[in-house]
Write a structure and sequence with these properties.
Elements lengths: L3 E5 L2 E10 L5 E7 L5 H15 L13 H17 L5 H22 L11 H12 L4 H20 L27 H19 L7 H12 L3 H5 L1 E2 L15 E5 L4 E6 L2 E6 L4 H4 L5 E4 L10 E4 L15 H14 L8 H14 L4 H8 L4 H5 L11 H5 L6
Parallel strand pairs: 4-5
Antiparallel strand pairs: 1-2, 2-3, 5-6, 6-7, 8-9
Length: 395
């Protein structure tokens, strides 16, 4: 049954078809006509009849499988990447998370052609529990986030009744909050190490090491690791506008400014503290992707400042994380620190140096100054020595 028009307090709704939910209640799949006017509603109904008039209740048809719909969803996401509406990294994360769930279905139930309607909160819970034995809660949280987006897309397409990942019965793992921030002494150890490596590179005593240079840039500008990895030598054709979710970072003009659009917030910051380094970082590379002989290698200009010379694409953050752990062991620092600890460390260091907290907030791209004020909680007793010694009233 479909094509029913019904008037509610908030206006007219077009009821496409009825179905019986898991509790045995009769319900309707509906779409708003976005009007309270009787005549307009009839006209909208006529349009919807053409679109939904022959629609059968998809919930009575078990043909929709997870594998099929996953492929359709990834195709639509890839198209968004092509149109500049979605970042390549987000698509890759979608691809990895959905295929991880597909592999799990294959191992658990013998097939990834599992009927989509049978993927309920219990199945998702089993997936979470099994993954907890393999990876961190952060990784699982990321998998679940992408799975939820996929299920929401399926709901809009009328392939499922509810999003099982949004179920209140689901026991989702809570992401561990990392509050470790380098102390004043640890920050200096890391700073001195990177600065000395940069100096030896500039003096021609060492070869270019992208990792150390990247960490030093992050320590100078308080950037997120994703912002550093996304940094381009120049503005791309789609690196414009705001209000969308596609991130972009590029050096503007003579490299004296960095334009950052990340997490739907746009900011422009100066690069004067690292300009001398940016001017020396190699731009041209011999592209080595799928090339067996040096004869076939061709010289190209890199798109990203710290890009992968094998592919001329952005590097993956997971490799950076592993290299950062190695660096922490090498310097005998806390291995619990992550690259994001450097962003926090930069903020605390600025507070220690009496920088204006409102300016720090704008520089970092925080939505509210209250977010930045949290970093003040990480000041330790040694930071208060000057206050204690300054008790005597002025003459």
């Amino acid at each position: 049954m479909s094509g029913k028009l019904y008037k509610r307090k908030d206006g007219y709704w077009y009821y496409k078809y009825s179905f019986v939910d898991s509790f045995g209640y009769m319900k309707w799949r509906m779409v708003s006509c976005k009007t309270k006017d009787d005549e307009v509603a009839v006209q909208v109904k006529s349009q919807f009849d053409k679109k939904f008039g022959g629609l059968r209740n998809p919930f009575s048809n078990p043909k929709y499988t997870y594998a099929e719909m996953k492929d359709e969803y990834l195709k639509s996401r890839k198209l968004k990447v092509k149109r500049g509406m979605l970042s390549e990294l987000t698509y890759k994360s979608d691809f990895n998370s959905l295929n991880r769930f597909s592999d799990w279905l294959q191992n658990k139930y013998g097939s990834d052609s599992y009927t989509l309607g049978d993927v309920n909160h219990k199945v998702v819970q089993k997936f979470i529990d099994d993954r907890l034995d393999e990876v961190s809660t952060t990784t699982i949280d990321n998998n679940i986030k992408h799975l939820s987006s996929f299920m929401s897309w399926c709901m809009k397409k009328d392939f499922i009744k509810v999003n099982p990942v949004m179920s209140t019965k689901l026991d989702k793992p809570k992401r561990k909050k990392r509050k470790l921030i380098p102390s004043k002494d640890e920050w200096k150890i890391l700073w001195d190490y990177c600065e000395s490596k940069v100096k030896r590179f500039l003096d021609g005593e060492e070869d270019y090491d992208y990792f150390t240079m990247m960490i030093f840039v992050q320590m100078n500008l308080g950037l997120r690791i994703g912002e550093v990895l996304s940094m381009k030598w120049k503005r791309g054709s789609t690196d414009n506008d705001t209000g969308h979710s596609k991130n972009y970072v590029y050096l503007d003009g003579d490299m004296k400014k960095l334009v950052i659009y990340f997490k739907k917030r746009l900011r422009t910051i100066p690069t004067s503290s690292i300009l001398y380094l940016l001017e020396k970082i190699p731009v041209d590379y011999k592209l080595r992707k799928w090339v067996n002989t040096s004869k076939d290698k061709k010289n190209i200009k890199m798109k990203y400042v710290f890009g992968n010379p094998y592919t001329n694409e952005q590097r993956y953050s997971n490799q950076i994380s592993r290299d950062f752990k190695k660096l922490m062991r090498q310097l005998d620092l806390n291995e619990s620190y992550t690259t994001h600890s450097l962003r926090h460390g930069w903020a605390v260091n600025q507070i220690r140096n009496d920088s204006n907290i409102y300016t720090i907030s704008k520089f970092m791209g925080h939505s509210m100054v209250q977010v930045t004020e949290i970093y003040a909680d990480h000041l330790v007793s040694d930071d208060f020595d000057e206050l204690v010694l300054n008790n005597k009233p002025k003459e």
